[in-house]
Amino acid sequence: VTVAGLEDLYREIILDHYRNPRNRGDLPCPPARRVEGFNPLCGDEVVVYLALGPGGAVDDIRIGGQGCSISQSSASMMSAAVKGRSEAEARRLVRAFKAMMSIGDESGDNDSGVAVDDGEVRLGDLEALRGVVKFPVRIKCATLPWNALVQALDGEEGG
Ligand code: ZN
Fold first, then answer.
1. Distance 142 CA to ligand 1 centre (A)
2. What whole-number distance in Å separates Cα of residue 147 and Cα of residue 159?
3. How far is the CA of 66 from the centre of ligand 1 (A)?
4. Cβ burial, residue 24 (10 Å; 0-12/13-18/19+)
5. Which residues pair with 39 in a beta bridge?
6. Residues around ligand 1, an ion, CB closer than 5 A
7. How many angstroms does the Cα of residue 147 sit away from the middle of ligand 1?
8. Ligand 1 centroid – CA 141 distance (Å)
9. How far is the CA of 71 from the centre of ligand 1 (A)?
10. Phi/psi of residue 33, each to 5°?
11. Residue 3: pLDDT band by 50, 70, 90 thresholds?
12. CA of 55 to the centre of ligand 1 (A)
């Protein structure tokens, strides 16, 4: 498989999630939490509805909003990746995804080696968004739904 072929595959995965978004819709709030994310640079809007089960597990998640293919496909992939996970697993996915987007080191650690996979986290389709790193302007599109998810996990009602 050539590099060009891989990029075509990734493009297909992104477009598939954009055209057929997973977990699209909403959930009654309360009990679900609702957090809105907005990326003014691109005009992306992502609304995350999060229903938590015992111990903070992600019982159910729904995605609303509108925006570019990167933001909306990232939200779709995220919803599929975290649904049914424990809170700890969901947060590990967030960390792994942000590491892939190269913004996991805001604490000042500037080691060049970025661990995408800590051994337990499998990003799956999310790997398709890896190419976004080459376009810094679009990184905010890709991370928008993840930041909204973290707010929802933290219990910060957005708006
Ligand atoms: Zn965007």
1. 7
2. 13
3. 9
4. middle
5. 44
6. 42, 44, 68, 71, 141
7. 14
8. 4
9. 5
10. -100, 145
11. low
12. 33
| pLDDT tens per residue across span 21-68 | 999 999 999 999 999 999 999 999 999 999 999 999 999 999 999 999
The H or E element that residue 90 is part of is helix 87-100
| Dist. CA 122–CA 81, nearest whole Å | 9
Entry pTM: 0.84
Which candidate, 159, 1, 140, 150, places its Cα nearest to that of 74?
A: 140
Instruction: Give me the long-range contacts of 110-118 (CB less than 8 A, separation at least 24).
Output: 118/92
Cβ–Cβ under 8 Å, residues 76 and 22: yes
CA of 112 to the centre of ligand 1 (A): 26
Q: CA-CA distance, 93 to 143, in Å (whole number)?
A: 12
Q: How far is the CA of 18 from the centre of ligand 1 (A)?
A: 12
Contacts made by residues 151-155, CB under 8 angstroms, sequence distance 24+: 151/35, 151/37, 151/48, 152/33, 152/34, 152/35, 152/48, 152/50, 153/50, 153/56, 153/87, 153/90, 153/91, 155/33
Q: What is the token pair recorded at 101? A: 């987007």
